[in-house]
Here is the input.
Amino acid sequence: MKSSFKRVLSLGLVLVMALSLAACSKPKEPEATAYTAGSYTATERGHNGLVTVKVDFSEDAITAVEVTEHSESPGISDAPIADIPAAIVEYQSLGIDTVAGATVTSNAILAAVANCVNQAGGDAEALKAVAIEKKAGEPIVREVDVVVVGGGGAGVAAAASAVQNGASVVLLEKTAALGGNTLASGGGSTTWNAVIPEKVAATPSMTGQEDSLRAFLEYDPAELPEGYDETLVTLQGQIKEYLAGDTSTMFDSVELHIIQTYFGGLRQDLDGNWIYGKYEFVRTLCEESPKSAAWLESMGGKFRETLGEPIGSMWKRALGPATNNQVDLFDPTTKVILDNGGEIIYNTRAEKLISEDGKVVGVTGTMADGTPVEVRAKSVVLTTGGFAANSEMVIEYNNYWPELSADIKTTNVSGSVGDGINMALEVGAALTGMEFAQLMPIGWADNGQLALGAGNNVMYIGPDGTRFTNEYAERDVISKAAFGVGGVFYEIKSQSEDIFNQLARVDDGTNMVFAADTLAELAEMINVPADALEAEVEKYNGYVREGVDPEFGKNVFSAYIEAPYMARVLSPSSHHTMGGVVIDTSCHVLNEDGDIIPGLYAAGEVTGGIHAGNRLGGNAIADVFVFGRIAGESAAKAS
Here is the structure.
């Protein structure tokens, strides 16, 4: 059935304001507050760096609040930056709800305004006590062909795909903005693994990559599972042909991507059980990734011309947004959804799947202001993400990390707590791979947030100043090695202006980034022995020169470590949950007997079976768009 829906044209015009204030009643007027009239500024730590606000006061009121500087992620931060200042002025209160999915940014704004209030002679604590009464609106009820639950990469891909296949669609998003972990997973960093021949041909080889390729020639195809064995045979032929010709530019192929994904996910749990990605899923991921990238470009999305390689990716094949801003990948997709009659309802936490006669026929939820929402649909697509921000759930299922503790920090947005998995369990969905969670080795040591970066141009050292791992290894390998030196370590590299200045970490007072002209100065700053650090850098640069690392087996290098120097303080952080609901390659959710649960589909991190025990860097974004697109098409055609 085709319905006409109100089109939500911007985050500022959502059905419910980001702070759930549209349906709020005015609070009781606070007692008169005296201020010293004027403008005041204050700065607080946000998610990516410093957030600066300017607040104007009359003698008895806050008259204006403006965020003047920040380095927060576009898209995710838009709602708090726009709505919290407006709400503070309207309600003369600091008792404002934080924006779901942007809690850190919200708190930074509120803390900075509180600072300004105190500077102006007011009482910030009193303003925090000025409550804003929230009042639920009339129930929202919709009936459509497809309802998509979750507005990250998989959700917008599913919704766009569904409307392109003729379905009427409602997309429910828990927070005030689309994006989720897809948008938070690296800002404008390289993220999306896809084998694009013309980009490969334009990419120079890096020192040591030929040795990496030769290693695949030593593998015996007969020792690999069905599907992977024949793929390896094909790959070995490709590698031999490449090595016999011009090796000045990169080699890559879908087969190499498949085999690397297999080995990257092949892991053993603490009980000795092995897990690896199901061949049909990995093949679909790698074959369809370039096609899904082209699909996104057909909607207006744009990628950089050059390839990158996020940490743990094992190869240089990652696409990144052309403007270094992932929100540019969401805007075209969102426009397709809205231009084709789709509706996006924000600030709505889905809570329960509606099941009738064994078929899933909709979902119920609640808006942030308490307004009940019910969407009836012929097909429901779960794209709610994983549960890496739910440390209790991670630890409950964990059977891979003996070092994992309840205070593990996370790179994830606050909404990634496993909602979709729990809803699917209630209707009989099977789970797989839940015991494996991926840690991001390069989380900031102070707050766990993603530090960004690659492994080909850096050196990792422990508190004693010596190197302890292959920086180009898989993420879990690096994380395990980091735990071996106490959990906190230092990344050493030549200074650059891309990542470090972007994150505004040098001057924010957190002592997480250090810059120096000499290694002796740097060693003093990070409190490691200077002679040890100097010796390690000299030795490492020798490995770069030779393209061989006899200590840890690193064989891909892109840069020497030379003056001026930079150090970052890092620690493993909960990043991605490998397990989730069981699906087939059409994204139907399956039960414990392997049967399809009618009406229910899933895509993205809410699912399991693809990445197995460890995910390659750059494969997650490929995953969410590839399988999100498939899920949307499958759900639309079933409607």
Summary: The mean pLDDT is 90.
